[in-house]
Amino acid sequence: MTKAASALLADALRLSESARAELAAELLASLDGPADTDAQQAWEAEIGRRIAAIESGGMPLESWDDVKLRVAKDILGR
Prior knowledge:
Layout: H1 3-13, H2 17-30, H3 37-56, H4 64-74
């Protein structure tokens, strides 16, 4: 790490917890590059298809209680 980066880190560590979290989120987001508009459009289309399937009754739904039990059993091993 360069001296400049070390000094910046030292300054950042003196910030409040919420300010550090916001700074960290912005720094991580800066590594992502530009948004993929095709992916955004694909997700919007997929969400639309899923909503239509739910509203038409074509997609089976589970109760929240059943989902919690399944997660506890299959994922948490309880």
